[in-house]
Amino acid sequence: MAMKITTASLSDLEEALACLATAFARDPITGYLLMPGPGYPERVTQFFSLLMRARIALRMPVLVGRETTGIVGAAMGYATTRPEWPADLAEEWDRFENATPGMTDRMAVYDAIAAEFKPAAPHYYLGVIGVDPKWHGRGFGAQLLSAFCEVSAADRLSDGVYLETAQATNVGFYERGGFVETGRGNLGGATLWCMYLSHRR
């Protein structure tokens, strides 16, 4: 079953955020960074809201997948460069991070693992990909992954696509998409796998 995949706009924000918040409700990475407990669903939604709004503002790759009922999945990240965030969004991120106890230190751990195992060659970064769980098993995740990789492959400056996952079940999914592990690290009590797809120019 195919879904319609398009570049996201701000008008997609609310629907896409509802989808991502559901998809990542039990994800080890968001759990590690944002700490489950009171207010956790709101933190997850705000986290993805900031990421999506910043990437749309910077014209970075943000894709949404639609079925007849609406948005069922999304994928977003960076192209080969990571421009500075707009000042208002950067300030909002700082307030969010400061309001989440320990998040700054946990982000530093996460970033250090990612920096160690990401490739040196220019590449796209797939920071977020998720499908509403009630739509799992229909191939929508694979379609979103393929669409994001195609955007990267169309950019002659990009050597490939890099990502991380802390879901053991996702490793095989990415391997089937052509990704290989570049390294792994410890994220709290979870393993963080770093993976790369080369376009083999």
Structure, briefly:
It contains seven helices and seven strands.
- The structural domain count equals 1
Shape: globular
Order of helices and strands: EHHHEEHHEHEHEE
CATH superfamily, by name, is: Gcn5-related N-acetyltransferase (GNAT)
Q: How many DSSP H or I helices?
A: 7
- Derived from helix and strand composition plus strand pairing, the structural class reads alpha+beta
Radius of gyration from the CA trace? 16 Å
CATH topology: Aminopeptidase
- Approximately what portion of the residues adopt beta-strand conformation? 15-25%
The residue ranges in which pLDDT falls below 50 over 5 or more consecutive positions are none
CATH architecture: 3-Layer(aba) Sandwich
Strand order of the largest sheet: 1-2-3-4-5-7-6
